[in-house]
């Protein structure tokens, strides 16, 4: 087969998923990852039904069954008082309404499953210690440059190199990712370490002034995943994933519900993670080069859709390259298909963050009062608001 070689910058969830989707449709793929080994950070991730449909298409669900957790429900509660605003039933309901399950999983388990499926593809190559510094368009495709001076050619090049993408910076100018004013705490703790103080065994968003937290279950339900998002004026540290102390985390969440305090106190490793973003891009394509996942559309995590959007991108990109003989036209069709949806999700994620962080009691009442009433009258009012996102099948 000729002219079907893709070079993929970045071996995160988006890079691996796109490599897998392309390899499955007959492409030779090479993933170039800067890190010395392929791995994901120690944190949980939620995969909504629209993402599960993509994982099913990619054939990775059998590798995940042992490690996923299907929560009974997702709740919105007040962080200090624990008062419930609404409960969204999920188990059983998600499958019936949106066509697949809603699950929680450790990122490393999802990443490993994608890598395992990719390694089973005879025409796929995964290279670590391969930092890309830029690309050049050339006849029939484009080449990326590696730090060590090597040049790697692809008929298409996919920039799946995350929110600080070098491919995007070259394509769109040096308008770098910006600090969003929010920092995420994260830790994973065994349920057994929490005694009677474990957070509920379903997903809970804990809302409060200028911050919110999310507790989920990962590793088949045996571990609690905690993410706490806090507004902060600036971020001056060198890395994006910085070890933090229990005392610092308790300064943010210590006066919230005892189960949250218990998670932080039992933590054997707390990290802070600055959240970066950027406004929607004017274009994602430069001839045979395109962007995917956070490189194309970074978003705040308050809709839990960043990785899910990358999975959708991966499936649509492979489909467009299958449908269009002209690769440049295929990449443009991919961008046209994806941009309206990812832009809407980016905007909605920023809106959700503001909604979870209402600054005072009056604003909280004005926001959560009608939600509580709607949820009390019928969960389907809240469910309906998720239809456009969870009910979507990007591969159909
Ligand atoms: C606190 C938090 C919670 C979240 N929760 C959820 C959730 O519940 N559900 C969900 O769907 N999403 C969630 N997200 C979003 C999700 O994590 C991201 O959207 C997703 O990881 C993006 O994947 P990606 O592959 O596009 O980018 P990344 O995961 O950033 O991967 C990029 C890869 O490219 C590599 N790379 C970078 N530069 C280079 C280079 N120059 N050369 C070679 N390699 C390079 C990096 O090392 C990395 O491996 C959350 C995010 C945060 C911060």
TrEMBL record:
Domain of life: Bacteria
Residue ranges annotated for the FAD-binding domain, each copy included: 6-349
GO molecular function: FAD binding; monooxygenase activity
Keyword Flavoprotein included in the entry's annotation: yes
Keywords, in A-Z order: FAD, Flavoprotein, Monooxygenase, Oxidoreductase
Cofactor(s) of this protein: FAD
Protein name, UniProt field: Salicylate hydroxylase
Organism: Litoreibacter albidus
